[in-house]
Amino acid sequence: MIINKVKLEIGIEKPIKILQITDVHLAYLDEQDTMGREDEQFRGDNYFNRSLDFLREAVEYGKKLDCVVFTGDAVDAALHGSLTLFQKETEELDYIYACGNHEYEPYVFTPETKEIRAKAVKVCEAYFKGDIHFNSHIVGGVNLVSLDNVSKQFSKEQFEKLKLEATKGYPILLFFHIPIFEETVVPLSQKRWNGNVDIMAMTAEEVEKLKMTPYHIANEVTKEMIDYIGKTDLIKAIFTGHQHLNHAGRLPCGKMQYILNGL
Predict the structure, then answer these.
(1) Residues of the chain with pLDDT under 70
(2) How far apart are CA 237 and CA 252, in angstroms?
């Protein structure tokens, strides 16, 4: 396991240690998994055959710290074999979980329909601790806030909940799966994903320039929430995953965003 350390000075009396884990992509099937077996078995055998070892190392390390935050894609799809395995391995772990895009897939290469995706994530909800769409946990005087941004937009409900969290008066660290757009991550993402840049809150001009789809463009609520994040002194930093690379960059709103590599 490779550990990427980040030290933040956020004004708390006693230091705390938090472990972020992202993009483990457990790809294990059991007898209940009947769809997409061939593709998932191939991915498990060829790409993610160390995922369980990686998870076990991370969990044991995390037990020694103050809290663990998963930023999505612990499983490669909403497979019974993967979900039950994750639940078993993290049973004794104190963690919060931010939903990733693979929790919305009943199996890899699933047709993109709202009904299929909604059903898949509903299955996943039963296997993770807490609310995987919005959660908060105060540890050592720091408010760890996790949320689901797989749609590449923030919702009005999430915005209102975040403002409520700020009234508690604790420094806030934000955790979610998909990074917010900032220029320095673009070439790294393009290199990693053969020209693709799958991040959120892009402008129409940036989408056109990078030949991305319109759903990468931030809607009004998302713009307002990002502006709020930038202007709220209690929000100290953002931690994400998804890109399968390590990178730290300052967002247009002024806050630092740390992208963590997965398996």
Answers:
(1) 34-48, 109-112
(2) 13
Burial 123-134 (b: 16+ CB within 10 A, else e): ebeebbeebbbb
Q: Is 228 helix (H, G, I), strand (E, B) or coil?
A: helix
Q: In this structure, which topology does domain 133-263 adopt according to CATH?
A: Transcription Regulator spoIIAA (3.30.750)
Candidates 224, 245, 127; CA nearest to 179 is 245
Burial class of residue 66 in the structure, from the number of CB atoms within 10 Å of its CB (0-12 exposed, 13-18 middle, 19+ buried): middle
- The whole-number pLDDT of residue 114 equals 87
Instruction: Assign a CATH topology to domain 14-130.
Output: Purple Acid Phosphatase; chain A, domain 2 (3.60.21)
Helix axes 156-166, 220-231, angle to 10 degrees: 10
d(CA 107, CA 120): 9
What's the pLDDT score for residue 38? 65
Residues with Cβ within 8 Å of 29's Cβ and at least 6 positions away in sequence, in order, are 37, 40, 41, 44, 79, 80, 81, 82
CA distances from 135 to 13, 123, 125, 237 (A): 24, 18, 13, 16
